[in-house]
Each structure stands twice: as C-alpha cells, then as structure tokens.
C-alpha cells in the first residue's frame, strides 16, 4: 500500500532534449509508455495534492502523451532559456497556502513511487530544515528535491539553467539528504548512448 502525501509535485518536462540528436527523451518508450507519462503517473500516485507538469509552449507532442491524466500541464513560454524558467513559473502557480513542494525531474526513469514517498516522509515542518533532497545510496545529492515555502520567493528571480542550485545554496545548513536505493536519484538519461546503456542493463 502506498503511503501518499498531500503537498504538490512539480514535474520539470519543458526542456528541449538538445543532446538527443533529434529524439525527444521525454517521449522515449519505457515499458510501452512515454517517459513523461510514466513520470507524471508516478507523481499522481504519490500525492493527493496537485501535480503540475511544466511543458514547452503548445503545440507539442508531450501534451498528447499526458492525455487523460489528472495533472495540470503548465506551458512555459520561455522554456528555451533554461530550467529555471520552469521552476519560476511553476512555483508561482502554487496555491498560496502550500507548505512545501516536491520538484521531480522528468528524465529519471528509475525513480519509483516509493522513493517519492520516502522523501516526503522525511519532511518535518516543525524542524528548521528547508530542503529535503534525494541522494544516491552512497550519499551523493540528487533528485527529487522538496522545498519548504520559506524558499518560494527565491524562485521568483531565477534565470538560466542552474536547476535551482541558488535556492538550495540559500538553505545551506538546513538541507537534509535522504538516501534512495542505488543510483536512482541521479540516473538521468540525456543522450541516445545513455538510453542504449540503460536499456541494455535492463535486459
């Protein structure tokens, strides 16, 4: 049984797959389903809160890949300026009373619903922790990341493609690393070679 949580999840899926030689990594097949749909489904199962999927401007096939899911597709007009545009716009779209939000990368196919829930269970809003971050089994920081609402205003000025590193840095000394199995927290697939190696390892 899944121990669901209630706060929102932002799925970052507006990137351009520049290193994929013309392919869209978020539309790559994972067990018969486009990766973006798989990630959105995991988010939907893990939380009873809202799921916001940051997307490139319409028209784009990623919208069709999400058809029928109870998620909110958020077009990011300036997505080509980098990941921080998605973070900035997605955090701005959150309800005002949101206590914290999970940010999930769209290209981490090995993450499981149980990983999202394990990270969420670590959240203690009575503590002074501001960031709860998934890590590898060896402790290397990765994703997903949960940000407390005390940091939300820091997203408003983000630009470029840093992936919110400035916000994590602002929380220095108040960051908890939560180990997840194996390399799931850092197993992003950015190139055709990455995908080929990943599929070979699964055979």
UniProtKB/TrEMBL annotation:
CDD domains: GT_2_like_f (cd04182). Keywords: Magnesium, Nucleotidyltransferase, Transferase. Pfam families: NTP_transf_3. Signal peptide: none annotated. GO terms for molecular function: nucleotidyltransferase activity. Residues 10-171 form the MobA-like NTP transferase domain. Coiled coil: none annotated. The keyword Nucleotidyltransferase applies. It comes from the Bacteria. This is CTP:molybdopterin cytidylyltransferase MocA. It comes from Sulfitobacter mediterraneus.
């Amino acid at each position: 049984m899944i121990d669901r949580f209630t706060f929102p999840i932002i799925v970052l899926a507006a990137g351009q797959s520049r290193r994929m030689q013309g392919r869209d990594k978020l539309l790559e097949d994972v067990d018969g389903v486009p990766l973006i749909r798989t990630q959105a489904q995991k988010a939907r199962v893990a939380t009873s809160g809202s799921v916001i999927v940051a997307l490139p401007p319409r028209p784009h096939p990623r919208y069709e890949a999400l058809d029928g899911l109870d998620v909110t597709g958020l077009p990011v007009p300036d997505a080509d300026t980098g990941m921080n545009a998605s973070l900035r716009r997605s955090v701005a779209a959150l309800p005002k009373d949101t206590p914290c939000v999970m940010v999930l990368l769209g290209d981490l196919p090995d993450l499981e619903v149980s990983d999202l829930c394990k990270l969420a269970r670590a959240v203690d809003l009575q503590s002074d922790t501001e960031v709860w971050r998934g890590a590898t089994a060896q402790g290397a920081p990765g994703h997903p990341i949960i940000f407390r609402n005390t940091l939300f205003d820091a997203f408003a000025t983000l630009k470029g493609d840093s992936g919110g590193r400035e916000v994590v840095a602002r929380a220095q000394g108040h960051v908890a690393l939560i180990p997840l199995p194996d390399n799931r927290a850092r197993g992003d697939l950015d190139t055709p070679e990455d995908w080929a190696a990943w599929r070979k390892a699964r055979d």
